[in-house]
């Protein structure tokens, strides 16, 4: 991937992000923040790449693994917590009477 | 193009699409929960895509698998446990903690690549390419470290583990932060110049900068800071994407970074604050000590729970104003019982939600939804404000600054200009509060002095429990 095309990717991604959120009701500020926060844990892909490419380099494997742990803590915790918050908004009868 | 490459390309495209739909859906109440799951699915897909790509090309060594599994299990397990166990009242600090760990992850990846260059990339040395590599490593470390320490400080402050030190409210802090900023820039360029030893300098100074910037901020500004740090962690992820050459990472990171920035802006607007004043203005609480608006209360009326119950019984329309105190006392279920009784008696009950009630926007909505309060009864400030003059009783539960009339009347007040709920327009206002202590901003509340305001002192949960008893004695809500 050439650097220039990566820059294009960065630019388009940013524009997409700017456009995605228009008017958010205050109710959803916290869940939205928490959900977006979980997505930022996507850096787990970088950690995975690091581990795969480490080729037996022990310190690198450990750094990658710790990094992966931090990222997944962010991702898994983030999505669960967001779901917990949002579950409270759904008014389904199954939810306890 | 061979099969693994095409497969990964398709998966990545799909993941980006789902992530975008996820963020979009999260901004609407109806679709929010599904959108969150969609985003989670996209993340899972992206991992599958990446692993299958490596399996199909270079293969993944057993040793790598072991470390992948160790990291995944430990991280996911702790994340899931914390997410399940943490009480709803401490949501803001939990989000801050998760966010900080995301920043830490990007930081570690960049550190790893910097100290042990990944094989395969450096054979045909290309000056331009290595420059980009160094820049992206430096950015990733810089932003990642700020995100990590900033988030941890934010969490500690929200938990009450850290208070706002006095020096951070004076000009000293600008000086200190400028020194940190300049020093980190020097380390930054030194690192790009190829002086790898300055990497540790960059880590340390960026970390200090994260602390220095976050420490002075407090009060209602905290959520804005967390949202901003969330945006940073997206930027850190995008920078890590440049480090490991991953388009998906760059797109997702950029999306979160930009969306986080917009959300930060939206939050600032809700509080009538600018981002600049949040970041550099100092916290409200510190300014207020010097403000002339503070002073003694002269006309406090306190009343018993019984009187409160009697007034409530005679009312036609009641508005509840919840605040952080309600969250702390965990009194949302008790409150719901009280309002149920009132409703059974034909009294109209509405909840007035200030945009920054609690410690985070939406905090009160989440809390009340947990107690099964119907969503339609929660009214936003702009909707409910015209209703106050036609309201018989307002119950202020653990809210303070958001009902302070000073924000409207007193231009010398630090709160001046912040939109507030006009509770004083109602016929009677009951403020349920533990004592006469000031609110989060530390400013005297003129509402308490007004003739139509009565204070009911006590813990919110206890008072509400007593109120249920009194209402029962009056025969309210028993058909």
Terminal CA distance of chain A: 55 Å
The count of strands of chain B amounts to 6
Cα(first) to Cα(last) distance of chain B is 75 Å
> What percent of residues of chain B adopt helix (DSSP H or I)?
55-70%
**Largest protein-protein interface:** A-B, 86 and 118 residues
Please sum up the structure shown.
The complex is a heterodimer of chains A (97) and B (479). Chain A has 4 helices and no strands. With 97 residues, chain A is mainly alpha-helical.
Give a structural overview.
The complex is a heterodimer of chains A (97) and B (479). Chain A is built from 4 helices and no strands. In chain A, helix 2 (29-39) packs antiparallel against helix 4 (58-87) and helix 3 (44-53) packs antiparallel against helix 4. Chain A has helices spanning 3-20, 29-39, 44-53, 58-87. With 97 residues, chain A is mostly helical. Helix content of chain A is 71%, strand content 0%. Chain B contains 18 helices and 6 strands. Chain B is of the alpha/beta class.
């Amino acid at each position: 991937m050439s650097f220039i095309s990566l820059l294009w990717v960065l630019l388009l991604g940013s524009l997409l992000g700017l456009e995605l959120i228009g008017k958010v009701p205050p109710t959803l500020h916290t869940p939205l923040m928490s959900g977006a926060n979980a997505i930022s844990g996507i850096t787990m892909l970088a950690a995975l790449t690091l581990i795969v490419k480490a080729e037996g380099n022990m310190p690198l494997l450990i750094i990658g693994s710790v990094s992966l742990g931090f990222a997944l803590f962010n991702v898994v915790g983030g999505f669960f917590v967001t779901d917990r918050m949002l579950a409270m908004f759904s008014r389904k009868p199954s939810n306890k009477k | 193009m061979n099969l693994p490459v095409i497969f990964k390309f398709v998966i990545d495209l799909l993941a980006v699409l789902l992530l975008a739909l996820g963020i979009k859906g999260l901004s609407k109440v109806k679709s929010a929960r599904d959108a969150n799951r969609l985003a989670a699915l996209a993340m899972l897909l992206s991992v599958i895509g990446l692993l299958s790509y490596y399996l199909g090309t270079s293969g993944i060594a057993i040793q790598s698998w072991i470390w992948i599994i160790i990291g995944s299990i430990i991280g996911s397990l702790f994340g899931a446990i914390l997410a399940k166990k943490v009480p709803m009242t401490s949501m803001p600090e939990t989000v801050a903690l998760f966010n900080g760990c995301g920043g830490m992850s990007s930081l570690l990846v960049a550190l790893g690549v910097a100290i042990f260059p990944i094989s395969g990339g450096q054979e045909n040395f290309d000056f331009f390419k290595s420059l980009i590599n160094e820049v992206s490593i430096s950015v990733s470390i810089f932003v990642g470290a700020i995100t990590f320490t900033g988030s941890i400080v934010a969490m500690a402050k929200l938990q009450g583990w850290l208070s706002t030190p006095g020096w951070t409210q004076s000009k000293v802090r600008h000086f200190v932060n400028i020194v940190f900023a300049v020093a980190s820039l020097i380390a930054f360029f030194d690192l790009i110049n190829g002086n790898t030893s300055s990497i540790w300098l960059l880590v340390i100074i960026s970390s200090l900068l994260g602390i220095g910037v976050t420490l002075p901020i407090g009060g209602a500004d905290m959520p804005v800071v967390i949202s901003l740090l969330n945006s940073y962690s997206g930027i850190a992820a995008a920078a890590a994407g440049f480090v490991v050459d991953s388009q998906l990472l760059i797109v997702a990171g950029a999306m979160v970074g930009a969306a986080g920035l917009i959300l930060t802006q939206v939050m600032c607007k809700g509080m009538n604050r600018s981002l600049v004043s949040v970041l550099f203005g100092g916290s409200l609480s510190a300014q207020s000590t010097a403000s002339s608006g503070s002073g003694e209360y002269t006309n406090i009326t306190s009343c018993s729970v019984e009187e409160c119950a009697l007034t409530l019984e005679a009312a036609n329309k009641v508005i509840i104003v919840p605040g952080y105190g309600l969250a702390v006392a965990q009194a949302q279920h008790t409150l719901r019982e009280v309002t149920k009784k009132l409703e059974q008696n034909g009294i109209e009950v509405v909840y007035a939600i200030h945009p920054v009630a609690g410690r985070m926007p939406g905090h009160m909505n989440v809390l009340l939804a947990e107690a099964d309060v119907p969503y339609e009864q929660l009214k936003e400030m702009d909707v409910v404000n015209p209703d106050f003059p036609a309201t018989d009783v307002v119950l202020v539960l653990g809210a303070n600054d958001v009902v302070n009339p000073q924000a409207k009347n007193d231009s010398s007040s630090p709160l001046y200009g912040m939109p507030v709920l006009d509770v004083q327009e109602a016929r009677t206002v009951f403020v349920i509060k533990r004592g006469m202590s000031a609110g989060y901003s530390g400013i005297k509340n003129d509402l308490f002095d007004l003739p139509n305001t009565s204070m009911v002192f006590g813990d919110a949960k206890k008072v509400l429990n007593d109120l249920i008893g009194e209402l029962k004695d009056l025969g309210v809500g028993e058909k």
